[in-house]
Amino acid sequence: MALSLRTRFSRLRVDLTPWRGSRDFRILLVSGSVFFLGGMVGYVALPYQLYQLTGSNFAVGAMGLVTIAPLVVFGLYGGALADHVERRKLLVGTGLAQVVISALMVANTLLPNPQIWLIYVCGALNAIASSLQRPSRDALLPRVVKHAEIPAAVALSSLTAQIGQLAGPALGGVLVGSVGVTWAFSVELVGIIFATLLYARLGSYRPSEQTSAPSLRAIGGGITYAFRRKDLLATYLVDMVGMFLAMPIVLFPAFATEVLKEPKLLGLLYSAEAVGAMCASLTSGWAKHVHHQGRAVVLATMCWGAAVGVAGLAPNIWFAIAFFAVAGAADMVSGLFRAVIWNQTIPDEMRGRLAGIEMLGYSLGPLGGQARSGVVADLTTVRTAIVSGGALCVVGVLGTAAWLREFWRYDARTDEHAVRERQLRASS
After folding, report:
1. Which pTM value belongs to this model?
2. What's the CA gap between 390 and 94, in Å, rounded?
3. Selection from 316, 279, 298 nearest residue 237 by Cα
4. Minimal CA–CA distance to 152: which of 142, 167, 162, 137?
5. pLDDT tens digits, one per residue of 394-414
6. How does pLDDT run across 112-122, given as a tens digit for each residue?
7. Closest CA to 321 of 277, 280, 274, 268
């Protein structure tokens, strides 16, 4: 019995096999971690600087409007580009562009009168560079680890992102509050430089011979491929339904201040989901034993919605924090298995374009969800917006799974796309 329990607990530990076995995975993981940490410091500094210069909440929110179009256009183009060029060169090139943009942000803070227009221009340019870079980085992951190690590689990548999500804003808040935004943007700049230098040390990963040059036709081919595969379509739709209907973050200030009467603990609401996600990542060793990954995505996303809804009923802030942590853990599990399906089934010649579509899905869903939450809260109450969103998420995801039944039946051991990719990797 003791041995059995020990075995069960060992399955919970995060699997470090990809880290031990692949030099290029280590480079991707470290560079991505540093890049994300620095980016989160800048994420805090940029709206702070805008608000200090303008005193306008609209001016801060307008940055989101400025970045939406570049995200959509260059996210799709960046995916097509990632399928056609050597991905290491694209990572380095976009990294250098981000170094220049970040340096401009630092220089702007040193002016006697920092230019507001330049902040918006840099925000738009950074959205372009990030949208061109992200598909290449995501598309490299299945190339740098063994096929069977993909679940562990995704879990490790998620874990480092969550650490950055927790540490980055905390560091950014300390910097802007103590030594100013110049230091915060400088930390972001150093992180980008370090990550770009690491990208340059990656091995060469040439594109497939079946690739197409970046064009509207190539982008359309990626979209068509995604829609023809109901399992892929379901990964996008389930996540978008979950995020659109049950994204409560925009309501946290009002929830903590007006409903729970604990404004001093607002920061814990923001960090609760990341803590829950980190706990799920640290105990993700079991993920490699799951084969019905579509079911895992559906159930985890329904759990996300249910936990958010229950948090909305919280009698005190600690109850809310606990259930938002559960929601974060469920969201991490959903994201883990969605990424595993993508990385284990999509052909390399399509991987960049599909990564671009993925990026749009998990970016636009939360943006729409925040708008929905705000409108419902203004029309009803904050509690109603959170609780109804969670309930609608459960119903919406269940309906999506019923509509796309292939997703519920998905089995990585027998799925034709997973089998083909597994055989190709074994023969290469």
Report:
1. 0.79
2. 38
3. 298
4. 142
5. 999 999 999 988 899 999 999
6. 999 999 999 99
7. 268
